[in-house]
Amino acid sequence: MKIIALELLYWGAGKRKVYTGELPHHHDYFQLEFCWQGQMICQCMNKQKIRVNSGEAIFIPMGQPHLFIPYKDKESVYFSFKFRLPGEGLPENICKLPKDFFTMVVGENLKNILLPENQTVSQKIADPKELFTMLIAGLLDHWFSNHNEDFCQQGILQFIRKKTYQFGAGVTLKELAEGMNLTVHGLRYRFRKAMQNLPPEAVNYHNPTDFIAAELLLIAKTHLQTSSLPVGDVAAMLKFNNIYAFSRFFKKHTGVSPQKYRRMMLNGK
């Protein structure tokens, strides 16, 4: 499924600590509740309670009664989005959306705009609606396009994603293999098996090196599209030796420089 058109109705941030006695409710639009810090509970119509941890989110379809309450009276910080979304293939029931590297990148951008301590960042954005629309549509597309992936079977892919996010361009196959108690040959073998078990519509990579490059490129594109960070800072965050190495990597995989890519995204081309 591809999220094509999303009409954002509301966005905001808040804190939840004490249950105030409100009752379950429903509405005629979709809702995404993103838990940034702490934990919270979503109570569904059948009294099922879903615990949402930091970095996870709850997707609430239209017409589904729900109620958010604190977890053990501990404070949580959350981002809330309400929107209309045409199309088919969306979940019909309330579901929890897991935390992964893509979520962490987008969550950092949401934090930089929505939380009061980041006013200097938010003041630079005249109208954040378009930016939020892009971020939430991207998250939903990422989550629902990959919801069939068996994360237990694909543990090696999650491990490589995590290490790529942590060490950026500095990650090596030898370190990855040692982290999983494998040889490099064993890592390559496990990776090929994981690729074979992916859904037919998923992108298939020939080797871990190509997979790492794709992950780095996705993180880089997200920063270039959704932040005003200088290209040199993006290169440093991704652990490239210098801006020139980052630019060569980016141009090799996209055909354009990071600066030109950012201009193209800003101009809608």
How are the SSEs placed, and which strands pair?
Elements: E1 7-16, E2 30-37, E3 40-44, E4 49-52, E5 57-60, E6 66-70, E7 76-84, E8 95-97, H1 101-114, H2 119-122, H3 129-145, H4 155-167, H5 173-179, H6 184-196, H7 208-226, H8 231-237, H9 243-254, H10 258-266
Helix pairs in contact: 1-3, 1-7, 4-7, 8-9
At a glance:
The protein has helices spanning 101-114, 119-122, 129-145, 155-167, 173-179, 184-196, 208-226, 231-237, 243-254, 258-266; strands at 7-16, 30-37, 40-44, 49-52, 57-60, 66-70, 76-84, 95-97.
Kindly describe this structure.
By secondary structure, the protein is α+β, with helices and mostly antiparallel strands. Helix content is 43%, strand content 18%. The chain has ten helices and eight strands. It has helices at 101-114, 119-122, 129-145, 155-167, 173-179, 184-196, 208-226, 231-237, 243-254, 258-266, and strands spanning 7-16, 30-37, 40-44, 49-52, 57-60, 66-70, 76-84, 95-97. The strands form two sheets. Strands 1-7-2-5-8 form a five-stranded antiparallel sheet, covered by helices on one side. Strands 4-3-6 form a three-stranded antiparallel sheet, with no helix packed on it. A hairpin with a 4-residue loop joins strand 3 (40-44) and strand 4. The protein starts with 6 loop residues before the first strand and ends with a helix.
